[in-house]
Design brief:
mainly alpha; two-stranded parallel sheet; 3 helices
């Protein structure tokens, strides 16, 4: 199967971002925080997934946050989570709301 011009460009961009993290990781560990993933669109999630799968040797920690209350089953983030969990590439840490008692 041959890629279209747009798909080829997207793949080249994804590879460039992955290579950037690999290069930066040679000098220092990296922590990438991506907040509010429940608002992310499909291309953004595809890029994030590509980086997670591709950057395996660099000291890279990606912390993604999302509100599960804002995430419906049809949202691309739900599909992305299923794929990444199936591949054992993510660890989910559930945080509950904290309320101070007076």
């Amino acid at each position: 199967m041959q890629r279209s011009g747009a798909e080829n460009e997207r793949f080249r961009l994804f590879e460039a971002v992955s290579s950037l993290f690999d290069a930066i990781g040679e000098d220092a560990p990296i922590v990438l925080v991506v907040d509010d993933l429940h608002w992310a669109d499909r291309p953004t999630l595809q890029l994030l997934t590509h980086v997670i799968r591709k950057v395996t040797d660099a000291p890279l920690l990606i912390v993604g946050t999302y509100r599960d209350t804002d995430l419906v089953r049809t949202h691309p983030m739900a599909e992305t989570l299923v794929d990444l969990r199936r591949a054992n590439l993510v660890e989910r840490i559930l945080l509950r709301a904290w309320r101070a008692t007076t």
